[in-house]
Design a protein that fits this description.
This protein is of the alpha+beta class and about 180 residues long. It has two helices and twelve strands, in the order αββββββββαββββ.
């Protein structure tokens, strides 16, 4: 009897894990280096991996993700600031309705449930079933945004991120570049 419960439990676990989205890729590039026709960073301009340092110059930065999913669902890019900020406010952008609003109590509870601290923007992106569905979010960063950042990617089912990219915003005159 216990063997039957183990088999049923395993089947349920596989069914649940099979419905979750998976991260295929994550990278970022400056808006000037984004090729909208290809929905991709221009050749040689993608920033990936660790040690990414950018000088913002008040320009938008794009985070591009490739998502593998077997169903239509929502994916969330959460832009998180790791430095000190006075009066931080969280904004929510819905790509379907193309609207930006201040986070409400439900959004703040969503962040709390996932133990996300320092969120500045939640970007809700709809994805369709595909082996590599491309999504993109962007945020304009200036010197007031200097410090450590990360963009965490969540699907609609998991409390833990399915992917993440970290970077540091620093003044241009430091001489630091991508490693």
């Amino acid at each position: 009897m216990s063997r039957m419960f183990q088999v049923v439990g395993l089947m349920v676990a596989l069914a649940v894990s099979g419905s979750a989205a998976d991260m295929v890729s994550i990278k970022m590039c400056a808006d000037k280096d984004y090729d909208a026709s290809k929905r991709e960073c221009a050749s040689g301009k993608a920033l990936e991996g660790t040690g990414i340092v950018i000088a913002p110059e008040g320009k938008a930065m794009n985070v591009l993700t490739g998502i593998k999913t077997g169903k239509a669902e929502d994916i969330y890019h959460v832009w998180v600031f790791g430095g000190k900020a006075s009066n931080p406010q969280v904004s929510v952008y819905d790509s379907t309705t193309k609207t930006m609003r201040t986070a409400d109590q439900a959004d703040l509870e969503w962040l709390k449930e996932r133990k996300i601290e320092g969120a500045r923007v939640i970007v809700k992106l709809s994805v369709m079933p595909a082996a590599n569905y491309r999504t993109r979010s962007q945020k304009t960063l200036d010197l007031k945004a200097a410090g450590p950042w990360k963009v965490q990617v969540y699907d609609s089912a998991n409390l833990m991120p399915i992917g993440e990219i970290s970077f540091t915003v620093t003044p241009k005159d430091t001489g630091i570049t991508e490693e």
